[in-house]
Amino acid sequence: MNLTLKIWRQADADSQGAMHTYQVSDVSPDMSFLEMLDVLNEQLNAEGEEPIAFDSDCREGICGMCGLMINGDAHGPEVTTTCQLHMRSFSDGETITIEPWRASAFPVLKDLCVDRRAFDRIIQAGGYISVNTGAAPDAHAMPVPKDNADRAFDAATCIGCGACVAACPNGSASLFLGAKITHLGELPQGQAERWSRVATMVAQHDHEGFGGCTNIGQCTAACPKEIPLDVISTLNHDLRASIRHGH
Predict the structure, then answer these.
(1) For residues 247 and 239, what is the distance between their CA atoms, to the nearest angstrom?
(2) Each residue's pLDDT tens digit in the chain (247 positions)?
(3) Cα separation of 120 and 99, whole Å?
(4) Does residue 70 sit in helix, strand or coil?
(5) Do residues 141 and 44 lie in contact, with contact meaning Cβ atoms separated by under 8 Å?
(6) What is the largest CA-CA distance in the chain?
């Protein structure tokens, strides 16, 4: 496969960025998207040009660090992470546009790398439970109904990649936030701080500059873990309840 790549280049957070065009040839359809970028970077190194910076870690679809906007879609044309996207999803001779996550709350650090620490600060604001440390509790010491356990597990599959934010026209992180609220809110261990949790996490979400949710649904369509939209309903329900509880 021979491809034309239009890629966002930006020297650092304070510099002006621009699209640059590159040609890559002999790309195997079985390569992952990141392997294709590795090939391009080897070519750039050989030519004495600065390689393209992009985030990645596990390359197994687990960590979500690899997020890119590909032809305007978060993670590309398939419902998966960028590292698990393969070049057979594209055609020989195609032009592919590659950009960093589009969200003011995720400022560009360099080229395709963005600062996603806003998610970390939302978790630090309340995405945890307070427990006494010690020996592991006995199995089934605190039974959890299966429906609750299943829903908590489904919400916990969120990897915090930020695709929901990048896909949302409003730049909202409501799907991410709803997944974290639902995950802990479905479990008995999460009940003690349930109302204060949602109040502090929503406040931090807004403080970080994420937009509001208008139920467009692009977030769940782009989510590689297919987090359902109803976690946002749980988020809204718990937020209203937290107000009634004085938080």
Answers:
(1) 9
(2) 999 999 999 999 999 999 999 999 999 999 999 999 999 999 999 999 999 999 999 999 999 999 999 999 999 999 999 999 999 999 999 999 999 998 999 999 999 999 999 999 999 999 998 877 777 777 778 889 999 999 999 999 999 999 999 999 999 999 999 999 999 999 998 999 999 999 999 999 999 999 999 999 999 999 999 999 999 999 999 999 999 888 7
(3) 22
(4) strand
(5) no
(6) 63
Q: Give the integer Cα–Cα distance in Å for 40 and 2.
A: 12
User: Residues, the chain, total?
Assistant: 247
Domain at 116-131+141-244: CATH code: 1.10.1060.10
CATH architecture of the domain with range 3-110: Roll (3.10)
For residue 116, the cross-strand partners are none
Domains of the chain by residue range: 3-110, 116-131+141-244
